[in-house]
Protein 1
Amino acid sequence: MSTNGVPEVLKSKGVSVETIKALSAFKSEPAWLTEKRLSAWRTFEKTPMPGLRDEAWRYTDISDVRVEDFLPYAPSPDVSEEGDLPDAVQRLIKEGEENSALLVQHNSETTFVRIDEELSRKGVVFTDLHTALREHEDLVRERLFGLVPEDYDKFAALSAAAFSGGSFLYVPRGVDVEVPIQSYRWLDVTGSIMPRTLVVVEEGATLTYIDEYASAGGQEPALSNGAVELFVGQGANVHYVSLQNWERNMLHFNTIRSSAGRDAVINSLVVSLGSELSRTNVEAGLAAPGSDSEMLGLYFADSNQVLDHHTLQDHIAPNAHSDLLYKGALRDESLAVFSGLIRVEPGAQKTDAYQTNRNLILGTDEAMAVSLPNLEIMADDVKCSHGSTTGQVDDVEPFYLMSRGIPRHEAEKLVVFGFFGEVTSRIPLKGLKAKLDKAIEAKIGLGFEERVA
């Protein structure tokens, strides 16, 4: 969307009640959504900014994050064809997985949407959130903010109050989406991007959905604050991927929550490579018997990056299964935080849940990994376990490879790829796996070469 007609209040830094009203009016939203936004803004105002004294934030210092420093709305250029997208976005698309539908959010607006005709004929809906509000209001109103409500935390309140752009995906009962659906979030101005993703998959349907976040470089700080809500019906099967590779001027906050119906399967993969500071909450709600969740995570921190992940395997119903594996590599003066909780609610008997976090520290730098796996069991017939390891690269491994004629920096790369292999080997998408391998190699290569030099 061009800058024509954008209210002046949206062109100034900071968010206020006037900003929220202007944004809602600008988008011609229904009255119920305007009130939802204003309610979320009131929640944001009365909720203190989390600090190091708060248990959930005691390792991640965000004391210098000020919402008033960011533009609440970043206009987007008009796009009529995929070839009109920024060159960097087109490269990302070409390097990624083959897709049957594509959505691109450029700054604060969705600028391009494409969906295969066959999917449309089957009743699949994939569009930006505001188009969905106009054309499928009942589907949106019933579920929007249902899993990530305004009172989840302060950043969720801001997201609910000031979101723009976003995506809506609806897969009808029994529809098999064989080729992945993909969205890209691209920021190339100093400001903020606040997308919401709402996915509704009905009974017996299958889907792979990939969310990717990337940006152009910049010196001024920029903010990403999003929310993802995944409603998965009975017997449905969903793969969800979040690939965060922002440039280093970005601050990234995101909450991903899912609800699984009876015998539904949700596989999530959360990859964190970019940003200066990233806080991602990933929560799986096992809401019905037979539901199943596999939660995979991969992160790589260097320089002074802070990558913070909080996870929840919430077993609400009996006879459900979950398995979490998060692995991270660190170097330089970076910090990685993992805090995971398996919670078994009263009555959720026969729960079967596992949680593992492993961290690899490269070299002898000042990198630090904080790993906090937890169990909260309120039923007496369950099988749950959790574990955590943190260690440096064993010198024996690269030495063995070097003894076979492999240069040191290549040997260390192979060690890191082997470490991540336990996660990447579970990714069924060849294009995505190749893209991840390339991104990881680009990130580890320079650091190793600098240490060897």
Protein 2
Amino acid sequence: MFTSEQSDKTLVKALVEAGCGSRRQMTDAIRDGRVKVNGIVAEAFTARINSLKDEITLDDKVISYSSSKYEYILLNKPVGYQCTTDDPHSEKTVLDLLPDELRNTYPAGRLDTDSRGLVIMTNDGDFTYKVTHPKFNKDKEYLIRTHRPLTSDDRKKLENGIELEEGTTSPAKIKIIKVSAPVFQYSITIHEGRKRQIRRMFASLDYKIIDLQRIRIGKITIGDLQEGSWRKLNHSEIESLK
């Protein structure tokens, strides 16, 4: 049951909370004229609506708020699956790893197709924002293998920040896991989430990443969850990321 405070919100937030997609996806849907409020095409994603009184449609389908339910899923993504829910050209997406009743979720942050590991799936837009926005300083830890060992100078450069096309990366933390040919393995922790950030950071110093696995976000770790498997986050895990 919605209270008056809960029902009065922006259009894009209402759509996200109803499980229709991520904030970015719903902003795009409004921009593309796919959303109507009381039969009129919506023009502003910040428009205030009352989800108890206003009829909202997405692609001419009425949005039901009574069935709105937040889900929080930890997924161990294998290589070859894309972190997308709306690309018709993707052969395999993370949604293919979930049962039908959880396919109203979307990734809170992404891993590229060639990477594997921890992905959080949810339909809670505010939760997604707190997990992904750099200002909340949520650590993201990765295990990586490189084609050659890091030099001490290059390690310092990575830790201090690398100049990428869109600006300098924030400081990173790097730990040596194993440096014995042919395996050169490290842990790197960042709190940003730029596109293919770690691969680009290492490539700028002429290192090729052979394997990249995300093992932690905040206090949540991948643990012994098998690749391709998922589980629901418990209450304490959810609260730790909020």
Protein 3
Amino acid sequence: MPRSARIILPAYPHHIIQRGHNRQAVFAGEDDYRYYLENLAELKEQFECKVYAFCLMTNHVHLIVEPGEDAEGLSLLMKRLAGRQTRFVNRLEGRSGTLWEGRFKSSPIESNAYLLACCRYVEMNPVFAGMCDDPAAYPWSSCSSKVTSKLYAWLDDDSLYIEQGKNDDERRQKYREFLQHTITVEEKEVILGAVRRGQLTGGNAFVDEIESRLNRRIVLRGRGRPRKGEK
């Protein structure tokens, strides 16, 4: 069966997941993680994208990326990033072949309602996996840059994060408090389900807006929204 067309929207954040081929490990040591992030920092500038959150797990990555006015920049970023990492790992391990699944999965995000929730979901992945208790302690995610000091200077601050406070200290405190809120099973299912199916992470008005822009029908299954009051 032919693949459905991926929805990539200019100037909208997207939740992206890319997994290792057959769920194999893609990061075996610190050099692997560092190399990926160095390239992410370089390529986001080259393709005029913004990166709001990331988490590199052993066999997959989560990213929140917003392309510029040219939506193709996101696909080019991911293609170049995956290619460089594959060549790097193959060279180190003396192997050949693919490192990643055939193509990354992505979901455009309705910023006002879902962006902070999606960033939190991404940065909480090591906690979900039982790798740590404090997401800011995990070295290969954007979390520490948001709640302590800006370890990754190239990371972009989204508008909702900026609105958390009048200065960096206030924003860090508010975001840490937000991370400590319980993430419901429903919220996890909404966020992960949307990206797995390549659908929109948003409410009815957002869906209507995008359908109008694209002049195509977008069917969503299992749609919901984060709990009220969590911004």
